[in-house]
Amino acid sequence: MATAESHVSAMQQQRSEHANIQSVTQLFRQRAGIDAQRTAARRKVSGRWQDVTWAQLAKEAEETGWGLIAIGVKRGDMVSIIAGTRVEWTVADLGVAAAGAITVPIYQSNTPDECQFILENAGAVMVFVEDQKQLAKLRQLRGRLPKIHHLVLLEGEGDGEWVLSLEQLNARGREHRGRAPRELEERIQSQTRNDLSTLLYTSGTTGVPKGVMITNDSMLFASEVAVGTRLLAREDSHLLFLPFAHSFAQIIKAAWFGSGLTMIFAESVDKLVDNAGETSPTILSAVPRVYEKAYNSVVASGMANPGLQGVLFRTAMREFELYAYAKAKANGQAYNSLAFTVAKKLVFPKVRDKLRKRFGGRITKFVSGGAPLAKKIAYFFDLLGFDMLEGYGLTETIAVTSVNLPGQNKLGTVGRPFPGVEVKIAEDCEILMRGRNIMRGYFGLPEATAEVIDKDGYFRTGDIGELDADGYLKITDRKKDLIKTSGGKYIAPQAIENALKTGSELISQVVVIGDKRKYVSVLVTVVEAEAEKVAGVTPEQKKLRTAPTYAEVARHPAVKAKVQEVIDKLNQTLPSYETIKRFTILERDFSQETGELTPTMKVKRKAAAQKYKKEIDSTPA
């Protein structure tokens, strides 16, 4: 089993290999030189999986870099990318880096107004857009974005003027290369570790998005720790769907270049599991919502089984609930029973085999980050024999702080801090950290930067937590999310929300309300398909298109009763001041399009509270 000391040694080796590397571009070029003919990436084209070698990726990236120089992109310019997770995103990003410019990723789900804010705030001079849909956003903003001199379509034809296709960009690059054959190389060699690599904007869950300045050195550090700890290794095949506008995906990118693993680009989050079955990855990194859905799907399927198989599964899940409750107790007490022993021999191995086969047969590691993972989910995957490795980090720390590692996984924590990351707990229990993972600051916001980075270089995370005797970090809540009732009691809402979401396959999203109120109440959304089952909607009604709407199903007495049942069960485990007294089932689920969810499926608490103020104020029992 690997030890902390062996990880430090491995990191030192990584650092030694990076000694002469000054930038992400140079790290990538080193990898492309070593592994030219190995598979760098896999993508689906016209229904078939296609391999992309490191040499091919390097050639396309260099062409894009030349194209950017040809259309006037200068060192230090801001260049944005609005696209989904695909190989072409990486090509554009590497081209930007080679030209000495700074990448500003934007989620493809962002509205035109949100795009405008980021582009204006960053001062972007050009934008890569994925397709006609993304192009349409920018066309309507053209008059308000005078600094942007070109758009480049990753997919589709341009007009040869303001909008260029990728091939038109590359053609201009080839012409320019003939006139100045050394310019690209000079730009690459002049890069330093202190140069900005990317400008990542916060999700806006706690206010106006801020541009987080990430240097080349921070990205190289991310590669060193992820590869040095063998969280990601050369022999891995990583299935990626996370958007590169998220810091979690950025460290995976850095580790990809540092390790030489194969990156499998999923078609979409909806096709994630199908893509896994087709490509047999060894590791998946995702946000908790993905694992919540996988858990609920497994449970719903098993519970619906007829006959003896269904009886065994339902018994197994009742025992698992008792096991998970015992594991969650502060003293970590064990749970054993004859029924649980039988379930571990007869039921859970079949679930494990089915899940492993569904993910292609080779997967061993699941990494969770971006938000707290419900303990029940971690216990379930662990019980099935998978490594569910929860980690912790923020955009301001390039998502690198700590992570659980295979063989050293302590469930209920986010692992030990990576070597080189200093973590301490302030008097008010806020987590503070410093190291090469910390951002340079917020772009154009020196006062906001000074508020979060103290004179000793410690970053104030805004998260509440503790370090245990073995050095493992545990997150208890967001400092700003703590709710103080009118009775003066503090409540951590995320634990309640996670418990409800994993307590029933019926519940989709939850927002706890209680600040300055006498009691705790919750807003709930439901999974439409499950709500239809509870409400007794028949296949014939669906076939004849006479089935009730989401709103009508959400109001059904049986659905309300089922939600009440889940809440009552949870209330039995909570202190009196945390128990949920009232709830409201909303008439539609949260979504990115309507502004309640971030692109990584986290609820924007403030946005939800403002939008549903009327419901919160009334909150019927």
The residue-averaged pLDDT reads: 90
Cα separation of the termini: 53 Å
Specify the number of helices.
Answer: 24
Helix percent reads 40-55%
Text of the CATH class of one domain: Alpha Beta
User: What overall geometry do the principal axes of the alpha carbons give?
Assistant: globular
Strand content: 15-25%
Tell me what the structure shows.
The strands form 6 sheets. The protein has a 9-stranded mixed β-sheet. The chain has a 5-stranded parallel β-sheet with strand order 4-3-5-6-7, sandwiched between helices. Strands 17-18-20-21 form a 4-stranded antiparallel β-sheet. 41% of the residues lie in helices and 19% in strands. It contains 24 helices and 26 strands. Among the domains are: 54-191, 3-Layer(aba) Sandwich (Rossmann fold), CATH 3.40.50.980; 482-618, ANL, C-terminal domain (GMP Synthetase, Chain A, domain 3). With 621 residues, the chain is α/β, with parallel strands linked by helices. The protein is globular and about 75 Å long. The model has no long low-confidence stretch (mean pLDDT 90). A hairpin with a 5-residue loop joins strand 20 (459-467) and strand 21 (473-478). The longest helix is centred in the middle third of the chain and has 22 residues, at 307-328.
